[in-house]
Structure formats: structure tokens, C-alpha cells
Amino acid sequence: MIFPKEDFNKASVKDANINKGILVDLFNKIDDDSINIHSMMLLKNGSRVFKASAYSFDEDTKENVYSVSKAFTSIAIGILIDKNLIKLDDYVLYFFKNEVNKYLKEYEQLKIKHLLTMSVPQTKDLFFELDKMKNVIEPFFNQPLTAKLGEKFMYNNYATFILSAIVSKVTNKSLNDFLNENLYKIVGIKKPKWTEINNYSLGATELYISANDMARFGLLLLNDGQWNDSRIVSKDFLQEATKLQIKTNYDDLNFDYDKYGYGYLFWLNSFGDFRASGSYQQHIVINKEYGLVFVLKAFEERNLLSLFENYVLKASEEGYNYCDYSLRDFIRRFKIHSKEIIEMEKNKSFE
Fold it and tell me: Is the pTM of this model over 0.85?
């Protein structure tokens, strides 16, 4: 495994044993379907096989990665568990003695593991009402449940916000400040912006990072929590975090590819391994069999995980095969052809 210093080591498709022709097909697919991708990057065992960015973007452009943010929250919880500062079976109410005076009795049994696995089936996710609340903690514990804790998956942003608040209670730091000391500085990520409410990082969303940052984080995940000589989070925690903890095959999920299970704020893939994912097709896809980290930043409603499964994974499975085409030419064409799509997106955002 090769870890970057200022920039990633580069690997040709031949060195990476990846079929270039299928990667060319990937860029043809993006062009033919006018897919609105902001940035893409592919690593093989820590070396960068390609990077591609749309008009007015590059690999260092920082954007909201939406629920990819949750994966960073998961790792923060793992670090605290490794430090023996918290346990998965700790009762959540214990951390909020001063904020929560009134609560439903069922929440006396709420554990950290329930928050990590989205198994707090509330009648409503109140996360997007936080800015209206004077006490941003107590309403969580007064929301009725539709099933017993731990029995049913419900995608719940508020639950992840509570995890962020636990990090703050334990460390006396915001989640973002804690990760700056225990993750960002070690892997070479400059401290990002993370939106806060009442001095709590949101945890669930609004972490602003670049494709390079996502790739560094993905490489840490690929290497089981080890970065060079530094152990950031234990392999044991990551193994639990990225394996099936709760089934997600419910009819109310937005995409079919979300129906293959959930770990500790990580999604499991139909094609194996796991990913961190956010709205509008933000993804960090991990494939351990071929040592791949695939980063995607986009503004799309369409399922773009198929780009990894049908092209990147297929190209890795087939291995290197000589091809006359230059991948650089197709990456350059992607940037040129993206200009119209990006300008349409920007104009729409001002309507």
C-alpha cells in the first residue's frame, strides 16, 4: 500500500492491471448520458490511476458531501471506543443529564449501537428542524417509536447528530475539532468546514471536503484503519462497522442499491464490500479484492454506483489489455463537455 505525501503516487493502467478500454467506455457513458459529475478519482493500492474533474472544478474543490459525512462520524466513535472512553452498549441518556429533563421511557434502553445502525425507528426525523430548537438534544428523546429499539432500520439524520453530540460530551471538543487532531492531520486533510448548531458539528451532513480528501479517507478504510505507521482506528472496529449489522430491505428506501444492508453508518454494496454515500451521488466505494478506492462527487438523481460496478470493477476484473486510445484525451473531453451541464446547474441554483 502506497500512502500519499503532498500528492498521490501515479500508476498507469498497465501497472494497476486495469483494462483501459473499459475505462474509455466509462467516459463515453458519462458523455452519452450527459451525467453531471463534478469529480472522480480511482486509486489502486494507494496509487492514483486517474482523476477527472468537470469545468470549474478540480480534485481540491471542497463541497458538501452530504451523508458521506456520517462515515467520518462513525470513525470518530470508533476512535473513542478504541480509547476506552465509550462502549457500544453505553446508554445514550447518560451523556445528556443536563440537557434532557423529559423523555419517553423507551429511551432509557437506547444505546450507542442503536444510533450507529440507524435502528431508532422514530415516527419522524426531526433533524431538519434543529435550527428552530432552543434545546437541540431533548426533542430526540421525546419522538415516539414505531418499533422496538434495534429491530427496524430507519434512516435518521438526527441519530447521527446525537452521536456528534456524544463526541463533544466526551472530549469537550466539536466532532470536527476532535477529528482534526485524530484523523485529518495524520492523513493529510486540511481541517474542513463542518456546519455546527449550538457548537455541535452536524455529524450527519454538511461536511465540506474535496475529492482528494475523500480519497485519503477511503485509503484509510481500505487499509483497515492504518495510515503508514499510525493506527487511527482499530481493524476490529472497522470490520464491525463495515459488515451487515441491520437489514435495510424496506420499501421506503430511495434506491435499490440501498437494500443490501447497513453497518455503523456505512452501506453495504450489492457487488461486495462497502461505501460511504451521500445525496446527489456522493460516494467513496471500497473494494478490497482489487485494492480499489473509487471517489465520486456529482449532482445527480440517477444511480451512479453502476459506473463503478459496470466499468471500474469490470475493468479491474478483466485486467490490463492493450488499447490504442489515450485515457487523458477522454478525461480532457469530459472536462470540455461538462461546461454546459455545470453552467446549467449553477444557473438553476440561482432561480
Answer: yes
